[in-house]
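Here is the promised in-class demo. Please do not try to memorize the tokens; focus on the logic of going from shape to residues.
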């Protein structure tokens, strides 16, 4: 048995024990995963049996209050159970963010700390397990056909892009035509602006992680162009993929781009104008709502750009990223 396998097994056991201590006595495991475990493990281990017909037991099927539909039974199961304590990163996987700079992420939270609608994050995965869990999640997401109308209209599933060890994650709404063509979020006009904004923060796209609430482009039957907002049903069906991406990445800060991203993550339908610039919390992760870059393309007023820039600087401060005088002065009226 390899050291990595033993480490993963220890982590899985520790995670299940922590869940049990918190009153959760079952976790759903796909037939595939169970088969894989049985094939690999040398000695019998009693699996934690999924409760029959207990959708609430799906740890990643958290659906914001505004969404009333239940994801299909085939909604994504949990990634491999993680370690209960952060471990040093092997040199080969240390990203720019590094272990030392990582914020303290909550481990299994107590019931008192976490609202029922915001299930606790699992303990963070060791880096090598993160890579494997994300690759496995991606493979399953790419084959998703839960929204049959979107599965038949899409060119690609736009899963997400960037560093899965990043401390900063951007969440958008849904792929547009360019993203659908290229299979990557934010590559069209709004994406170009987002890339510039990330650059202004002193980062590059490959140093953050970017994903959307919806992985497929919302279809526009009868139209040759244009976009539409995802429906509550589509969001409720798709959101478990994003929850799992966040479970794996566990960034120090998330930036929600636009009202739909906030609605998808928090279930809040308060206007983005009211919410932007105010720190929110997604399962213990600080979340900064700001305007969508597409809004800035429509409204080029420096005052609006400055608001978004202030939100991004707040995110930088939270991450203790340096901000120089030139950055502080962006979009301020010249004296
Ligand atoms: N708008 C989004 O919200 N996401 C994308 O990926 C592209 C445009």
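The designed amino acids, position by position:
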């Amino acid at each position: 048995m390899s050291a990595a396998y033993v480490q993963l097994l220890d982590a899985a056991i520790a995670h299940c024990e922590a869940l049990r201590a918190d009153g959760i006595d079952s976790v759903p495991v796909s037939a595939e995963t169970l088969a894989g475990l049985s094939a690999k493990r040398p000695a019998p281990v009693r699996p934690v049996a999924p409760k029959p017909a207990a959708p609430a037991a799906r740890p990643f099927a958290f659906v914001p209050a505004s969404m009333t539909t239940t994801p299909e039974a085939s909604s994504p199961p949990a990634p491999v159970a993680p370690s209960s304590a952060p471990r040093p990163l092997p040199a080969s996987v240390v990203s720019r963010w590094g272990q030392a700079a990582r914020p303290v992420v909550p481990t299994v939270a107590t019931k008192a700390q976490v609202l029922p609608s915001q299930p606790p994050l699992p303990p963070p995965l060791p880096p090598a397990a993160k890579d494997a869990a994300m690759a496995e999640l991606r493979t399953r997401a790419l084959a998703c056909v839960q929204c049959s109308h979107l599965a038949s209209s899409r060119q690609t599933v736009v899963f997400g892009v960037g560093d899965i060890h990043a401390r900063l994650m951007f969440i958008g709404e849904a792929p547009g035509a360019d993203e659908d063509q290229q299979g990557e979020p934010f590559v069209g006009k709004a994406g170009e602006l987002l890339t510039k904004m990330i650059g202004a923060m002193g980062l590059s796209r490959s140093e953050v992680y970017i994903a959307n609430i919806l992985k497929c482009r919302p279809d526009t039957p009868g139209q040759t162009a244009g976009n539409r907002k995802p429906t509550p049903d589509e969001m409720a069906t798709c959101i478990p993929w994003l929850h799992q991406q966040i479970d794996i990445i566990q960034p120090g800060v998330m930036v929600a781009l636009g009202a739909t991203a906030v609605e998808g993550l928090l279930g809040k339908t308060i206007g983005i104008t009211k919410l932007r610039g105010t720190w929110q919390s997604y399962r213990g992760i600080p979340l900064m709502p700001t305007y969508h870059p597409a809004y800035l393309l429509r409204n080029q007023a420096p005052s609006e750009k400055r608001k978004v820039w202030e939100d991004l600087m707040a995110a930088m401060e939270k991450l203790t990223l340096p901000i120089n005088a030139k950055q502080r002065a962006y979009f301020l009226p010249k004296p």
